[in-house]
Design brief:
The longest helix has 35 residues, at 42-76. This protein has helices at residues 14-40, 42-76, 82-99, 103-112, 115-127; strands at 143-145, 148-150. Strand 1 (143-145) and strand 2 (148-150) form a beta hairpin. Helix 2 runs parallel beside helix 4, helix 3 (82-99) runs antiparallel to helix 4 (103-112) and helix 3 packs across helix 5. It is 56% helix and 3% strand. It has a domain at 14-127. The protein is built from five helices and two strands. It has a two-stranded antiparallel sheet. With 185 residues, it is mainly alpha-helical. The radius of gyration is 28 Å and the shape is elongated.
Length: 185
């Protein structure tokens, strides 16, 4: 009726993901709060969750800055920082996990801050993602050299704005820029 859709047999249905995210995860967190709270008390349990959130923000700052420096060096060398982008995304996920109150999400977040674990998760995810390369070619109608856009005579025209001022060459003088001049002629 609607046409055939091919799904990979390994893909988890979205219904199961939503079930785990909205029902199973909070249930696990509540259970762990009760268990830890009964062992160490309510106040230490609350302080522990606040401490993990603070640790998550500090770890994000430290590892995030070093990752940004690695990405910058990859781009300066003319390479696409693909692995670094995946690492960065996983660091953000790890920080979010540590900011969410709960011991289960804290454990996942702490594991994702360990570089070998993060690399393994990145390889696992990359193997399951359908990646496509897009090549974008710019038009040859203008040339970019040192940040300057060089337009040919036919690629822009003068016109009058609402105030009656011309936006092109005026008074017989050639203007350097085709953009509107704020001073009056």
């Amino acid at each position: 009726m609607f046409g055939k859709t091919d799904y990979k047999s390994e893909a988890m249905p979205i219904g199961l993901i939503l079930l785990a995210a909205f029902i199973l995860l909070p249930t696990i967190e509540i259970y762990l709060f009760i268990e830890v709270g009964s062992e160490i008390g309510a106040i230490p349990t609350i302080l522990l969750t606040v401490a993990t959130a603070a640790a998550g923000s500090l770890m994000l700052r430290h590892q995030g800055l070093s990752l940004l420096m690695r990405m910058r060096s990859e781009m300066d060398a003319g390479r696409v920082p693909g692995d670094e982008l995946m690492q960065g995304a996983l660091i953000v996920v790890a920080a979010i996990m540590l900011l969410i109150p709960g011991f289960f999400t804290d454990a996942i977040g702490l594991l994702l801050f360990i570089p070998p674990v993060r690399a393994a998760v990145g390889r696992f995810l990359a193997a399951r993602v359908d990646m496509r390369t897009v090549n974008i070619k710019t038009s040859q109608s203008y040339k970019r050299d040192s940040g300057v856009v060089d337009l040919d005579e036919g690629e822009w025209s003068s016109s009058e704005d609402r105030d009656g001022r011309r936006n092109g060459p005026s008074n017989g003088q050639d203007r350097i820029s085709p953009w509107r001049d704020d001073k009056t002629d």
